[in-house]
Design a protein that fits this description.
alpha+beta; CD36_fam; glycoprotein; 13-stranded antiparallel sheet; transmembrane; membrane
């Protein structure tokens, strides 16, 4: 009916033939079909748009939540906990230990400085850790005949040095409950030809020590002196002897007087069956005696101070205050602090020698104090009243030497500085060949100020024998009194760079430790701050996501309504 109506209303009102009206019908049907299709497509499009809008809301949420900048860290709950736990541990550990580090370090250091079976000091003290040398110079008497015949001044020439590598061992240690250690000292010497100026086969002429020692012991006993005169005469003993350097020092040599004394079981006051100034000492554990020394366990300021020698608190060899046994052996000292004197006990002299503060030094980057010999070291009491006791009961000699005859088996031995340096001029004026020199002949000891470690040692001493007229003994009857230089030596040691570097590291450890520990605390604080920043950032992201989602929902609602 509709189609018919439309045909009736068409502008073409005239009747047309059948073959002409058919195409128009087809066109009309196609237009109707297209209109229906467009209507369905519009409905489908609206449905699809609705579903897409609903889905996009969910997609936006997921995309926003998962959106991160490149390389950003996704913080899980466990990671957050780990960050803050690490931060707090670092802060507490670094801050607390940083505050108490100095006390902790001092405690550790003291435990290593005191002598104990497990301390670092003991491992270094029980065996010499650095190269140490004994350099010996021998005096050769060039005009003994002129002296005997005409009382001419004795002429001496210095030979050497004969250099020996020295290693000291502390043996037979006994740890005592009173904070001391009892021990023996063993010294071992090896000849170092490469550093020596001369060989041990060099021949040297000097005073006959055996004959002089026996004569000195009986000089005030008329009958014994006469007996010694005939003994020396029958044995063809002379005022001087010529021996090799090796025999004079360590090897020793046989002497006719010693042979007779040994055969008759007579004690002449000299040790051994041979004579040599160091004979029987090389490798001996007993020669220097038994020492008892403070370990520093009670008070570090007393470490190394002797308490006993040969089981005696005082020596019975010297009178008055000169019999004191204290000081150190020179290889382990308390920190010098403000002290202006260092006292060293010398077993070869059976007493103390005192060194005076001279100046501050820098040794390989370490601060130290240098102590040196002064004229007071061998004063006879004229300048230093406390040393007058060394002249009690003996013939007092001019200042500059120390009578150690009581310590050397009765031999007329006197110790001085080399070439009679700082001694009374009378010693040098009576002989020829002495050339005292402060740089060459001064006794000096440099000590590290914080720990008391020896930095440089130059222990220089000279051995002299007193030659004097003795009426009843022929070879001593018509001679002048003179102090004859026999030898002088220097015991040298220098702290090596290995140990100076270790000490420097120990000295900076308190500051280095504090900086490190406070640095750890600082890192902890930084990590804590970063953690807070990450939490704030994450919170802001969450808020942004919620805002974006809310805004998107509003936009979607508008689109849907349209």
């Amino acid at each position: 009916m509709e189609m018919k109506s439309r045909i009736n209303n068409d502008e073409f009102t005239d009747l047309v033939p059948m073959h002409e009206s058919k195409p128009k019908v087809l066109i009309t049907e196609r237009l109707l079909s297209d209109e229906i299709i467009n209507h369905h497509e519009l409905q489908k499009s609206e449905s699809t748009s609705y579903h897409k809008t609903a889905k996009s809301k969910s997609d936006i949420k997921d995309k926003i939540k998962n959106r991160q900048s490149p390389g950003a860290m996704k913080l899980t709950k466990s990671k957050k906990i780990l960050i803050f736990v690490f931060a707090w541990i670092a802060i507490i550990f670094g801050a607390v230990l940083g505050i108490f580090w100095t006390k902790i370090f001092d405690k550790i250091l003291v435990n290593q400085l005191i002598l104990s079976p497990s301390s670092q000091s003991y491992s270094l003290w029980k065996e010499t850790p650095i190269p140490m040398y004994l350099k010996i110079y021998l005096f050769n008497w060039t005009n003994p005949k002129e002296f005997i015949k005409n009382n001419a001044k004795p002429h001496f020439e210095e030979l050497g040095p004969y250099v020996f590598r020295e290693v000291d061992y502390k043996v037979n240690p006994v740890w005592n409950d009173n904070g001391t250690i009892t021990f023996n000292q063993k010294r071992v010497w090896h000849f170092d030809k490469s550093q020596s100026n001369g060989s041990l086969s060099d021949t040297i002429t000097n005073l006959n020590p055996v004959a002089v020692s026996i004569g000195y012991k009986v000089r005030h006993k008329k009958l014994l002196a006469l007996a010694v005169h005939y003994l020396l005469k029958n044995l063809n003993e002379t005022l001087t002897v010529t021996k090799t350097a090796g025999e004079i020092l360590f090897d020793g040599y046989e002497d006719n007087v010693l042979k007779v004394a040994r055969a008759l079981n007579i004690t002449v006051g000299l040790p051994g069956d041979k004579f040599g100034w160091f004979y029987g000492r090389n490798g001996s554990e007993t020669y220097d005696g038994v020492f008892n020394m403070l370990t520093g366990s009670k008070n570090l300021d007393n470490i190394g101070i002797l308490q006993e020698w040969d089981h005696k608190k005082k020596s019975d060899l010297y009178p008055g205050k000169c019999n004191a046994i204290n000081g150190t052996l020179g290889d382990l000292l308390p920190p010098p602090a403000d002290s202006d004197t260092i006292s060293i006990f010398a077993p070869d002299m059976c007493t103390l020698i005192h060194l005076k503060y001279n100046n501050n030094i820098d040794y390989g980057g370490l601060s130290g104090k240098r102590f040196i010999s002064t004229a007071e070291m061998f004063d006879n009491g004229t300048k230093v009243q406390s040393r007058a006791c060394y002249c009690d009961g003996v013939e007092c000699q001019p200042s500059g030497t120390l009578n150690v005859s009581i310590c050397k088996y009765g031999a007329p031995a006197f110790m001085s500085l080399p070439h009679f340096y700082l001694a009374d001029e009378s010693y040098r004026n009576s002989i020829v060949g002495m050339k005292p020199d402060k740089a060459k002949h001064e006794f000096s000891l440099a000590v590290q100020t914080d720990f008391g470690l020896p930095l440089q040692v130059q222990g220089r001493l000279q051995l002299n024998l007193l030659l004097q007229p003795i009426e009843r003994i022929g070879i001593f009857a018509n001679i002048s009194k003179v102090y004859v230089p026999i030898l002088w030596f220097t015991q040298e040691a220098n702290l090596t760079s290995k140990y100076t570097n270790q000490i420097k590291f120990v000295l900076i450890l308190p500051l280095l430790g504090q900086v490190t520990l406070y640095g750890i605390a600082g890192i902890g604080a930084l990590v804590f701050f970063i953690g807070i920043c990450l939490l704030i950032r994450e919170r802001r992201k969450t808020d942004d996501i919620q805002n974006l989602i809310s805004g998107n929902e509003d936009n979607t609602a508008v689109i849907t309504s349209q």
